[in-house]
Amino acid sequence: MTSRVTPGKSVTVVGDGAVGLSAVLAAKRLGAERIILLGRHTVRTDLGRDFGATDVVAERGDEAVERVRELTGGDGTHAVVECVGTEQSLKTALGVVRDGGVVSRLGVSQYTDVPMGFGTLMRNITLTGGAAPARAYIEELLPDILDGTIQPGRVFDSTISLDDVPNGYQAMADRKALKVLVRA
């Protein structure tokens, strides 16, 4: 994980979608002591708690930053995994990371400008991200998935046929489904 999560560290995950919930699983597996999940959908944040989130923050923007800072004694978290991809979610991520921390962007960026001005530079924040090299982790993770130690498949809450793919995308867009599984 590009967020450099290690045992005993604190992590904020911005976004309660399938990517965010997977980030919670990964942070827990890597030994994060505190995992703060930013999300507003109770069914999703409840699953996030099952996956290892220690705290849930429903606020957004400046209110979310204030709440995370409050939860961390004013410091912010060592790492932030931004799983939404909007400019606002990245600004929130930069606001909740502690000085010297890491923000890892996993949300597919929906804009081109990154707010990394002088103030952020002086906080010594690392901004990183990219697509997960999933094949590199298969050997390590598959046994834990097969024996039920971790259950990432719980993010699939709807099953559709190949003909229903457009409806599946619409259900996810309307927040009626977290992630759909397509069966041929």
Fold and architecture overview:
The chain has 2 domains: 10-134, NAD(P)-binding Rossmann-like Domain (Rossmann fold, 3-Layer(aba) Sandwich); 151-183, no CATH class. The protein is built from 7 helices and 8 strands; from the N terminus they run βαβαβαβαβαβαβαβ. It has helices spanning 18-29, 42-51, 61-71, 87-96, 118-122, 134-146, 165-173, and strands at 10-14, 34-38, 55-57, 77-82, 97-105, 126-129, 156-161, 179-183. The strands form 2 sheets. A 6-stranded parallel β-sheet has the order 3-2-1-4-5-6, with helices on both faces. The chain starts with 9 loop residues before the first strand and ends with a strand. The model has no long low-confidence stretch (mean pLDDT 93).
Classify the fold: give the CATH topology of the largest domain.
Rossmann fold
CATH architecture of the largest domain: 3-Layer(aba) Sandwich
CATH level-4 homologous superfamily of the largest domain: NAD(P)-binding Rossmann-like Domain
Q: What strand line-up does the widest sheet have?
A: 3-2-1-4-5-6
- CATH class type of the largest domain: Alpha Beta
What's the mean pLDDT score? 93
Count of individual helical segments? 7
Specify the structural class.
alpha/beta
* Rg of Cα set: 16 Å
Main beta sheet, described?
Answer: 6 strands, parallel
Low-confidence residue ranges: none
What letter string, H or E per element, gives the SSE order? EHEHEHEHEHEHEHE
Q: Which oligomerization state do the chains in this entry correspond to?
A: single chain
| Total number of beta strands | 8
Number of structural domains: 2
Shape designation: globular
Beta-strand content estimate: 15-25%
Helical residue percent?
25-40%
